[in-house]
Specification:
Immunoglobulin-like; alpha+beta; 15 helices
Length: about 450
Amino acid sequence: MQVRNIFALFIYFFLSGSLSAQNIEMNFPAFAGKAYDFIIFQGDKQVKIQHDTIPANGRFTLVVPTQYAPYTGMCRWLITNTAEGGGLDMAVPGYGFSVSCMSSKPNSANISYNGYDAVNELNRLNQEQRVIINRFETITHAISLYESTHPLFSALQKEQRAQVLKYNKFQQDLKKNPNYNARILPIFNLNNGIAPQLSNNREDQARLVNLYITDKLNFDDLFTSGHWTSIIQSWVQLQAQVVGTKASFVKDFNSISRRFTDANRYTDFVGKVTYFLTKYGKDDFVEAITSTVVNSGKITAYEGATMQVYTKALVGSKAPDIVLPDGKVMKSGELATADYRKTLLVFFASDCGHCEELLKTLQVHYQSLQERHIHIVALAADADEEIFKRSKLAFPWEDTFCDFKGMLGVNFRSYAVLGTPTLVLINAKGIIELRTSKLDEVLINSKI
């Protein structure tokens, strides 16, 4: 038995008499004796809530426990003790349902549903939008083959506009449809790169997706969809690489933040956003949302390296002291001594491609930084001593250190460094003035 396509085998369950739990009645006699797991989605976690064996008569009950009921979202029923595996991906709209199959090879034709058969509806919705999209793409390609003076050009443009209007109506009908299919389909669309409006312009498509996620997406539905992390990553990537401005990101982040009511889900969301912002070199974006995050009242705990960025080494705060591999301490307030007015901490890893580029650029600008009276202290996340030594030999500055503990090193933890490269500019009083991944920002903020 195969795990079916996401649009082919979603199972929706009706409430079976209990207000404290959701019972999903299953009847699969051909699989008697097989062990199974019952799994639901919570953010990026797959929570196994039941493990059992199918009895001889093939009838058994999947139970969503009280702490998750009423559960609305994706779940997974998996056969676990056979070489061929198998099971069903299933969607739960907040109540129970029953499903049965007499065949040893289940498929969409031989599985029957009692009380609420939404499989055909989901297939119909997906097929309806796919026909519109395919026609739009075909016509768009055809338009590109003709000059604007060709007799077919205007007719093709007219048909292209007709498909745009038809797709807009399809999306409006989804909004009016109370069926859970209509809520989950847009999430699947986002994960498949399908925008809520048709456009043949990639930047326009990206803008439309960003707008939908920012203003329309139901993050409670997303949390239980199985696509939590992938769509958050896509949104951050859009913000970092397409939308591109810090001001617009802060505006959109604040819009999403206001829609969260569950503190645990908001904390998870902020953690994911922060991680991916750092991955895409947008440390300044993290700094820009710090006030919103800290003052939201919805953060359950600042645990782990990702969330500690909101409590440690913030711009405007006292910089932590630097602990050297031999145990000696460089006091942050004493780093800028003699001719130095500021200190630039460079957190890097020798096997990091972006770090290699930054370090080469830093060497080019080293004399300029000296003229600006900036003291460079480089801190490596290397695990291999020989690699570190080779890297260090190329640097014109003296202070380069490594404790060979990687990102778990004391300085990386005390400065809440999530990724490399990370640059921290500290003034003579030991106060952090700038935190970024880009040297040009350091140069702009340290003009003579």
